[in-house]
Fold:
Amino acid sequence: MTAALDVPTRIETERLVMRPYVAADAEQLVEVVTRNLAHLRPYMEWIQFEPQSVADRREWIAGEAEKFAAGTGFTMGMFDKAGELVGGSGFHVRTDPDGLEIGYWIDAAHEGKGLVTEAAAALTFVALDIAGAAVVTIGHAPTNSRSGAVPRRLGYRQRDLGGKQCFDAGEMAPAVEWVADAATLTTEPLASWPRPALTESPRPTSR
Ligand SMILES: CC(C)(COP(=O)(O)OP(=O)(O)OC[C@H]1O[C@@H](n2cnc3c(N)ncnc32)[C@H](O)[C@@H]1OP(=O)(O)O)[C@@H](O)C(=O)NCCC(=O)NCCS
Structure:
């Protein structure tokens, strides 16, 4: 069952560290999201609740920590090696019963560097090889070709779920969905993609 899926609290790739947000990230998160409102508005449903205050963000981080601890959602910040927040990623627990769904966004200033593909490759490995998911999925709006290029680049295959909806420029549209499983992980390009370093830091707590 999905509740048993267990995700490490620190995932390190060549250029990135992914980890759950902590209260001290609130200022940085507000700053990055607020300066990316136009960039994120077309495809991130939560942008309708922005901009948020630092206090709102702390509250949100506490809620995400509760979900992480309960195994009902695994939101992570994407930081560079200097600790600068460059985007957000992690897993939603909402598609297949034994699956995880990768979500992502990146600061417009860091688009086009392959950082999201690097993050998604690491998360694919974590989902399938560490967390025990049977499948990992990535879904996006039909017009979001930049998003679709990420799973395509990693060798995911497209699947038709029929009827699954996602946020597309203020409306809901049929999602394009991609899936990876154990076989994807042992097929190029993921087979020879560098594996992330995983370290267990203290589990997030809500307060
Ligand atoms: C969707 C989104 C996350 C994709 O980000 P991205 O920067 O295009 O993705 P990557 O970081 O993997 O970068 C890929 C690009 O970097 C290039 N690149 C440079 N160095 C690279 C490397 N080492 N490895 C892979 N690609 C590299 C690729 O060629 C590609 O360029 P191209 O788009 O010109 O073909 C980003 O556009 C975004 O945040 N959009 C708004 C929010 C959103 O839509 N989120 C997804 C909702 S489903």
Summary: Residues 39-40, 43-44, 104-106, 111-117, 140, 144, 146-147, 149-150 surround coenzyme A (CB under 6 Å). The helical segments are 26-35, 37-40, 54-70, 115-130, 145-153, 182-185. Residues 2-195 form a domain with the Aminopeptidase fold (CATH 3.40.630.30).
